[in-house]
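Predict the 3D structure for this chain.
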Amino acid sequence: MLSHKVSESMFWLRDDRLAALVSSHFRLNHHDEVCFRICPVDEVVCRQSTMGSTLITVINYSGAVILVLAVLENLLVMVVLAATSHLRIKYFAFVFSLALADLAFSVMAIVYALNRARFLSALLQSSFFVSVLMILAVAVNRYLALTITPPSRYDALVTRCRLVVVCLLLWCFSLALHLPVVLVASDEVRLILSAWSRSMLVLAVWIVTAVLYRFVFRKIKSYVPPLASSPGLSIPDDSEQAATRVRQTRRLLVTFSIILVTSFICWIPFNVGQIMEYFIKTGQSTISDDTFNNYNWVCGFIYCLSPAINPLIYWWRLDGFRQGFKELFCRCLLQNQEQLVETVDGNENQQNTESTHWIKNDNK
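Done. Predicted structure below.
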């Protein structure tokens, strides 16, 4: 009871010497002394606040490391896909686009951590939504690959230029969805759109994507290669090409299904945080600001894990990517070794020439 009264009175003390005297009398450390002077509650709350600050600091440094790794990983994915000849095909087009979206997200997250401008926030969320749309586009593309027969007809309809146009349209759609909300709308409208309209739209895209993936997997399971009697088909070529396309589709969809699940897990806490922010700012929730800020930091860290995880999934699931990575960097190592061998051989030849010339001079 006495300590409680002293703690209450210490909150109102402004004389540092008196505070130090009382704190030494009650055997308090420096942290407790500061808490008694500046905190309107008891010592436990102050220590909890310090623990929260420590958690935020750890999350800050961990998030910075994760984002830098995500930038390097996605740059590496794009270099491998662009520099390897057998990977520059339509099969890996959306993998390249997803890596580009993850790279943009990681860069925007780093820039946003330094300058919390609304424009950068819109670009950050646009990049993530583009990655969600890319996962949906993969399912649509693979469905068309299985539905349009013969395979040569699919190759004629789905060209590389059209895939590039589709990727650009997805970027434009995502930017058009996020930028006006940030640049034009008022704070109240932006809060409502962020918590409900935009979140529900992204959730709807997730649900449609999951349903479409399920539908394509069922189509793969019941797929029968086209018969030789079908017009324009030949037995060895088109049947083998169709079977290869089914195997590629199954493997690619399994890969992107894993990406779908991990991205959704990383996104859902952030979405819940936006809904919580709406209830807090409208006075419909009793959650404290400190609790919400700590939750927000944790959600932001989880939100940034997705672009760092995706390249690891490519390495694990896509044999062509692993092969291209080994060919690219093994080729660089071999070239360096060949240059080193040529340099050593050249030095040895030069030494032999000099020694021969010296022996001839001796003989003379």
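Confidence is low (pLDDT under 50) at residues 1-45, 227-236.
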